[in-house]
Amino acid sequence: MRLLATTIISLRALRRNKMRSMLTALGIIIGVAAVIAMVSIGNGAKAQVEAQVASLGQNVITVFPGSMTSGAVRSGWGARSSLTPEDAEAIANEVPGVVAVSCEVRSRDQIFANGLNWNTQVLGESPEYLDVRVWPLERGEMFNEFDVRSANKVAVIGKTVADQVFGGEDPIGKTMRVRNIPFTVVGVLKSKGYSFFGQDQDDTIIIPYSSFMKRVFRRDYLNSILVQAQSEALMPFVQQEIEALLLQRRAGREQDFVVRSQLELAEAATATSKTMTVLLGAIAGVSLIVGGIGIMNIMLVSVTERTREIGIRLAVGAHGRDVLLQFLIEAIVLSLLGGLIGVGLGVATSQIVSAQTGWAVLVSPTAITGALLFSGAVGVFFGFYPARKAARLDPIDALRYE
Asked: Which tens digit of pLDDT belongs to each residue from 85-143?
């Protein structure tokens, strides 16, 4: 009952000075709004980067060519490959936790079809490639193991290639030429858009890696090997097992390969956005501290102005803790009211920024809850000293105050 009465007295005191109360809460409003807007923009950028990394596949580990030494000449990383289809087959058969493996060779070349030509990326892959990349077909079907064993001239094409060389026609069953070698289109991939590296993923054609190596580009080695782990938790273990297996297959030779996981790529890609989110949130958090100092300043002024009122309350039987609680409630109400208005303003600001700039934003419930709790804590922290000062006033001195 005493708490309810004290709360009512506090609200009445704030209502008597509406303009001053709103101006006092303005610092908290701006601080919370800045925190919500900045964190939302940072989280949106991070989520966008993570989505782009995820578009590269699910639980993917990639084996790249490493550095090689020939005589006294040391080549740079990726300058020459020693990866073979046999390496990929060994990984698929001997490494536990692996669910799919795709040999990969790639190049860019001019293709011809339907009286038109187009320069695009040509990928030689295994049938499991679409499973590794989590890339569904829009039409047709993926080539199979028989096509790989027979080095058949079949191809699956991306949406960009289909639009550029076939226009509005259905490309399934039609012929396209790669280096004057005819390939029959058996499937069209669903659009994936641009990758994290800014590359149009739909501007590609996929043929069996054996056809790429034997019929088109005459290569003996792979550019990379794509491996899909059973789960994200198993990725570090699978990565270590792949390294151990390939070293064993090289029988004591130097390590001429590099094994990288999608987790490493995701961590590197999101590191900058995480840093920026923390930095922006910290800068915005300074506004909350400034708002708290404003609350303390106004509360101290309020204590001075209401000294006689405090003296009367103490003289008629109010306890010091009642006065302390009254001023503390006023500070908390100001900060929480500012926090609620700031949350609404911050969400609105982030949406306006997204609409005007096209940036991705992600309003986090955690950020909203944290901002509100922090604003309440600011009210308690900066309101306690003025409240304690009011509670410690001597009733006789307070009544004499002019």
From this structure: 999 999 999 999 999 999 999 999 999 998 899 999 999 999 999 999 889 999 999 99
Contacts 24+ apart (CB under 8 A), 69-74: 69/254
3 state SS of 367 = helix
Taking the CB of residue 119, how many other CB atoms lie within 10 A of it?
11
Tell me the per-residue pLDDT of 215-262, one tens digit each, with 9 for 90 and over.
998 888 899 999 999 988 898 899 999 999 998 888 767 777 888 887
Domain-wise residue ranges, the chain: 2-52+268-400, 83-249
CB 228 within 8 A of CB 99: yes
Q: pLDDT (tens digit, 9 = 90+) per residue, 371-390?
A: 888 888 887 787 777 777 77
Q: CA–CA separation, 121 vs 202, rounded Å?
A: 9
Q: Tokens at residue 39, please?
A: 């964190």
* Cα-Cα end-to-end distance for the chain: 33
Q: Is 157 helix (H, G, I), strand (E, B) or coil?
A: strand
Q: What is the DSSP string of 209-226?
A: HHHIIIIIS--SS-SEEE
**Is there a contact between 210 and 149 (Cβ–Cβ < 8 Å)?**
yes
CA separation, residue 1 to residues 5, 7, 292, 387, 389 (Å): 6, 10, 29, 20, 24
